[in-house]
């Protein structure tokens, strides 16, 4: 007799919790939540095996709106909470939801270490280049000169580049997407979910209340073809309304070139998300709009490496195989002992 | 008995003795001390030890700052402390002598490595003349032994460099003291074999040095008396000598087994707690996961994640690390997840005295978080007690769904005593319940409480129990975020009541002495040994004094108020400036009197006895233990002199 194990077929609405969503109307977070609910049923993972962990900030309210297990933890610590969870329970599908302040400022250390350990978790960083929940102070990704409540004369700290940091920590999966590019957003989230090891995704997210239009150049219909570049593995780096421009390497540096006029596709830089060395991905992460480059979106890097959650549990198995399952009575008597009658 | 040319020796039997090995931190004094401890335990003595080492791993050789010591009290009777004064002191160099001679009792034996008392060594220790020769030590029995030379000649021809030969000196010293106190060499010979077996020449040299030291004692005429300390009458059973941090690690592993859980330790290296991490990391075959986190905050929050995941989750640190964990502990209180936070207290504030003991984190444990954030607090009283209290901490954590703070201190953590080994099968199981799958589609209620006010521990992966927890205030029962004023008041009250309920679930408070009388000595944590011994000493003189030692600090035992009211005076000796006293005064309006000490050292029995006797004679004031002159006055004086001379 065969046993028919049937997973219930879930719909996006099955992932909606009963809580009212309380982001500001028009916030980019809504689109990310909608795509996440759409991606979830496609993963083939039972709902009870999914856990969302967040820190503090607008984005970190996310777990309340997903009908999965979740923890809205404390500021910056979500990657560490997720590490404990995943180490003990590798069977769970663990997501970390964070923001530019939560992940790169107060929680920078945890983010860096979670990535270098390559736990099988997915980290989604909503980058709106501002502190929203505390009502509008500059964040670690705000551009130089940014005037906010806490920087009335302009920000004087150089911004951090989330992907450069992730790649610097040798993240095995690094991607960028945009809240309004919903199809792309969904695809990137799905690829992140499928990646074994830490997947790091930066989402350009609009905070329409405190930093409206921060990513306008990358989102507006008229400009986005020239200001962004969709990465495709194995394909040359081409962009522009008529796909007339490309990125070529000039020595160690990328440069924008016009196709035709003696430049062919073969002269361009070809994207290789599987490159073992992170140098190419790093170079792509450095391409910024303000320096005259299109900003790449898509998967920068996708390689496989051993995972912390596997290895910590494999060490336990190895220890049990080599020494047998621990016997406390033996352990207690492992030093010198003496008897008193 | 030797009948040959050996000098005529007499043997004296003693109830107990205290020996201290001290030397440079590179001299192997900790090893000498632990070997002497093991051997004394094996011959059946009760033992209590006090290792004392500098914060610097290798302070400059020969300096006062680099002195490392190990004290062993061994006895034919029950003992609770490593001893106030020392009967025999081994000083490997002048700096060790300078910093330790104050603890050698009058008439005590000093064994000094005279080879180290050269001009440079003397100068480094601040001696203008050689104390071994200038008559300043005449109240002690001084044995100047040219240990360096004797060791070198013992290991000659074994292929060791001079430097390597000198490394065997601690074995020579051990051998000599082993002879002096009539201890067998076999356990140490076995140890040498296990530890150095693969380096044959080192094993051979250490063995030769050990035996040479022993023979020196046997033959040299100046040492005429050998001492014998008979077996103690311990309760029947099998014993091993155990160090506090090891007992704690084993206790946690045992608790995990007793509750059928994986053990997860999140930790960041910190003195004096790191040995808990080291010990647990060794035992992965017990399903122990050790996570060395990027910082204390991650160690704490990963512990929260592991608790959510369903493990027995613990984190271990010391004061500065606990300060960093405070925000995480708040989250643990809000999410009402079971876990254990261990604080191996050390001297503070800030980095303070990392390798020295103190009890000054009690108020931090009780109140050191934002908001109304009650956490049960319990404290271990001795190295062996760390084993049992670990299980008690976990029992409370799971029964009440709460983080539990377990306090030990540097003195307990590194000290050792005989531990009667339990049989695992005899230990009480720790019951853990998790709600099962729920398929009826009803909403799961993560904050619906049981009769103890504990909420259910629902594990991710369980069908139908999907729920979200976090640091925002929760509505009771549903666990949904709530800003409702009445709910917040209710939840603050509920969390407080839940912890208070623990008082109904702990053993009655024991008293040692009459139930009513003139004086109650109220103590907690690692001062147990000194206070118990002091009270016994005074009781033995026919005076009425009672000892009450607290294991549960939050909540305090129900009957404590009543106990306190039955005594005319209450003395609270603490290695802080009066933290328990503050709590007792506030809670019971009792005019308790403090005996306080923050010198990086435990209480001596004499300090507590003196205060008890003075209170019995009418004293009503707080007081501080007097610092030992040798430790502070000489160095402070030296600094002042230097400053005065424009240095
Ligand atoms: S403040 Fe900005 S980021 Fe936060 S919810 Fe409102 S729009 Fe979104």
Helix content of chain B: 25-40%
**What's the average pLDDT of chain B?**
94
Q: Specify the oligomeric state.
A: heterodimer
CATH superfamily of the largest domain in chain A: Thiamin diphosphate (ThDP)-binding fold, Pyr/PP domains
Chain-averaged pLDDT of chain A: 96
CATH homology group of the largest domain in chain B: Pyruvate-ferredoxin oxidoreductase, PFOR, domain III
N-to-C CA distance of chain B: 58 Å
Q: Quote the CATH topology of the largest domain in chain A.
A: Rossmann fold
Q: Give the number of domains of chain A.
A: 2
| CATH fold field value of the largest domain in chain B | Pyruvate-ferredoxin Oxidoreductase, domain 3
CATH class of the largest domain in chain A: Alpha Beta
- Helical residues, percent of chain A: 25-40%
Name of the CATH class of the largest domain in chain B: Alpha Beta
Spatial separation of the terminal alpha carbons of chain A: 62 Å
Main sheet attributes: strand count, strand direction, barrel closure of chain A: 8 strands, mixed
CATH architecture of the largest domain in chain A: 3-Layer(aba) Sandwich
Major sheet details of chain B:
7 strands, mixed
Q: In total, how many domains does the architecture of chain B comprise?
A: 4
Order of the strands making up the biggest sheet of chain A: 2-1-3-4-8-7-13-9
Instruction: Label the CATH architecture of the largest domain in chain B.
Output: 3-Layer(aba) Sandwich
Summarize the structure.
The complex is a heterodimer of chains A (341) and B (647). Chain A has 341 residues and is an alpha/beta fold.
Report on this model:
- The complex is a heterodimer of chains A (341) and B (647).
- Chain A is of the alpha/beta class and 341 residues long.
- Chain A has two domains: 12-235 and 273-312, Thiamin diphosphate (ThDP)-binding fold, Pyr/PP domains (Rossmann fold, 3-Layer(aba) Sandwich); 237-270, no CATH class.
- Chain A has eleven helices and 14 strands.
- An eight-stranded mixed beta sheet of chain A has the order 2-1-3-4-8-7-13-9, with helices on both faces.
- Chain A is globular, with a radius of gyration of 23 Å.
- With 647 residues, chain B is α/β, with parallel strands linked by helices.
- Chain B has four domains: 2-228, Pyruvate-ferredoxin oxidoreductase, PFOR, domain III (Pyruvate-ferredoxin Oxidoreductase, domain 3, 3-Layer(aba) Sandwich); 240-426, Rossmann fold (3-Layer(aba) Sandwich), CATH 3.40.50; 433-505, no CATH class; 517-624, Rossmann fold.
- In chain B, 37% of the residues lie in helices and 20% in strands.
- In chain B, helix 14 links the parallel strand 14 and strand 15 (403-409).
- The longest helix of chain B is centred in the first third of the chain and has 20 residues, at 200-219.
- Residues 1-5 of chain B have low confidence and may be disordered.
- The structure holds iron/sulfur cluster.
- Iron/sulfur cluster (SF4) binds at residues 23-24, 27, 29, 58, 128, 132, 207-210 of chain A.
């Amino acid at each position: 007799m065969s046993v028919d194990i049937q997973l219930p077929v879930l719909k996006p609405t099955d992932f909606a919790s009963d809580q009212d969503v309380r982001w500001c109307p028009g916030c980019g977070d809504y689109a990310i939540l909608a795509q996440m609910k759409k991606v979830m049923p496609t993963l083939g993972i039972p709902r009870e095996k999914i856990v969302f962990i967040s820190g503090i900030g607008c984005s970190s309210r996310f777990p309340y709106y997903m009908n999965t297990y979740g923890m809205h933890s404390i500021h910056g610590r979500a990657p560490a909470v997720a590490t404990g969870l995943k180490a003990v329970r590798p069977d769970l599908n663990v997501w970390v939801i964070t923001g530019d302040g939560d992940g790169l400022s107060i929680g920078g250390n945890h983010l860096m270490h979670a990535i270098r350990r390559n736990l099988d978790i997915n980290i989604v960083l909503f980058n709106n280049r501002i502190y929203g929940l505390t009502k509008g102070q500059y964040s670690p990704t705000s551009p130089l000169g940014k005037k906010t409540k806490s920087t009335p004369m302009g920000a004087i700290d150089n911004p951090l580049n989330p992907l450069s940091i992730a790649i610097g920590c040798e993240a095995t999966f690094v991607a960028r997407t945009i809240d309004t590019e919903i199809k792309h957003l969904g695809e990137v989230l799905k690829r992140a979910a499928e990646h074994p090891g830490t997947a790091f995704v930066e989402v350009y997210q609009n905070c329409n209340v405190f930093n409206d239009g921060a990513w306008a150049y990358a989102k507006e219909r008229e400009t986005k073809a020239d200001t962004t570049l969709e990465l495709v593995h194995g394909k040359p780096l081409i962009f522009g309304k008529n796909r007339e421009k490309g990125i070529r390497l000039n020595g160690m540096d990328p440069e924008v070139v016009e196709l035709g006029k003696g430049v062919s596709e073969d002269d361009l830089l070809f994207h290789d998300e599987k490159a073992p060395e992170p140098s190419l991905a790093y170079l792509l992460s450095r391409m910024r709009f303000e320096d005259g480059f299109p900003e790449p979106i898509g998967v920068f890097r996708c390689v496989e490496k051993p995972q912390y959650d596997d290895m910590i549990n494999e060490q336990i198995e190895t220890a049990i195989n080599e020494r047998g399952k621990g016997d406390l009575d033996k352990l207690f008597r492992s030093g010198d002992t003496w008897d008193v009658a | 008995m030797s009948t040959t040319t050996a000098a005529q020796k007499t043997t004296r039997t003693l109830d107990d003795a205290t020996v201290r090995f001290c030397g440079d931190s590179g001299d192997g004094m900790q090893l000498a001390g632990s070997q002497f401890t093991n051997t004394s335990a094996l011959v059946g003595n009760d033992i209590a030890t006090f290792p004392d080492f500098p914060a610097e791993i290798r302070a400059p050789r020969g300096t006062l700052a680099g002195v490392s010591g190990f004290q062993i009290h061994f006895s034919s009777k029950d003992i609770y402390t490593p001893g106030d004064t020392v009967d025999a002191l081994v000083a490997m160099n002048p700096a060790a002598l300078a910093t330790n001679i104050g603890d050698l009792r009058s008439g005590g034996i000093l064994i000094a490595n005279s080879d180290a008392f050269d001009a440079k060594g003397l100068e480094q220790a601040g001696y203008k003349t050689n104390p071994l020769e200038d008559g300043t030590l005449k109240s002690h029995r001084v044995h100047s032994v040219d240990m360096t030379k004797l060791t070198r000649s013992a290991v000659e021809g074994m292929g060791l460099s001079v430097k390597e030969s000198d490394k065997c000196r601690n074995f020579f010293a051990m051998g000599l003291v082993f002879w002096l106190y009539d201890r067998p060499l076999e356990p140490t010979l076995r140890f040498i074999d296990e530890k150095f077996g693969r380096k044959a020449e080192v094993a051979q040299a250490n063995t030769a040095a050990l035996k040479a030291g022993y023979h020196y004692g046997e033959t040299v005429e100046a040492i005429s008396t050998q001492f014998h300390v008979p077996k103690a009458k311990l309760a029947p059973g099998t014993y091993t000598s155990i160090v506090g941090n090891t007992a704690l690690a084993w206790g946690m592993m045992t608790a995990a087994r007793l509750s059928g859980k994986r053990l997860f330790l999140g930790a960041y290296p910190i003195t004096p707690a790191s040995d808990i991490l080291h010990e647990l990391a060794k035992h992965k075959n017990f399903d122990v996961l050790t996570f060395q986190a990027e910082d204390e905050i991650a160690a704490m929050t990963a512990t929260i994640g592991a608790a959510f995941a369903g493990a027995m989750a613990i984190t271990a640190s010391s004061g500065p690390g606990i300060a960093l964990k405070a925000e995480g502990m708040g989250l643990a209180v809000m999410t009402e997840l079971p876990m254990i936070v261990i604080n191996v207290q050390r001297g503070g504030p800030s980095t303070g005295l990392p390798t020295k003991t103190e009890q000054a984190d009690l108020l931090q444990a009780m109140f050191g978080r934002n908001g109304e954030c009650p956490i049960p607090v319990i404290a271990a009283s001795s190295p062996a007690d760390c084993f049992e209290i670990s299980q008690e901490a976990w029992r409370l954590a799971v029964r009440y769904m709460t983080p539990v703070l377990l306090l030990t201190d540097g003195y307990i953590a590194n000290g050792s005593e005989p531990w009667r080994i339990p049989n695992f099968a005899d230990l009480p199981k720790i019951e853990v319940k998790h709600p099962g799958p729920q398929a009826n589609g009803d909403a799961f209620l993560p904050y619906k409480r049981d009769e103890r006010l504990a909420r259910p521990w629902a594990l991710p992966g369980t069908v139908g129990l999907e729920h979200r927890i976090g640091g925002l205030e929760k509505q009771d029962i549903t666990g949904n975020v709530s800003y409702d004023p009445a709910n917040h008041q209710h939840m603050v009250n509920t969390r407080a009541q839940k912890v208070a309920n623990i008082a109904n679930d702990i053993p009655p408070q024991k008293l040692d002495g009459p139930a009513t009388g003139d004086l109650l000595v109220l103590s907690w944590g690692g001062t147990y040994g000194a206070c118990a011994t002091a009270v016994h000493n005074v009781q033995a003189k026919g005076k009425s004094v009672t000892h009450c030692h607290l294991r549960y600090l939050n909540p305090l035992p129900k009957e404590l108020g009543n106990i306190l009211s039955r005594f005319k005076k209450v003395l609270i000796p603490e290695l802080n400036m009066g933290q328990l006293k503050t709590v007792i005064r506030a809670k019971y309006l009792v005019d308790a009197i403090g005996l306080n000490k923050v010198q990086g050292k435990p209480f001596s029995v004499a300090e507590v006895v003196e205060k008890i006797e003075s209170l019995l004679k009418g004293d009503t004031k707080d007081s501080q233990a007097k610092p030992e002159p040798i430790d502070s006055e000489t160095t402070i004086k030296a600094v002042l002199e230097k400053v005065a001379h424009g240095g």
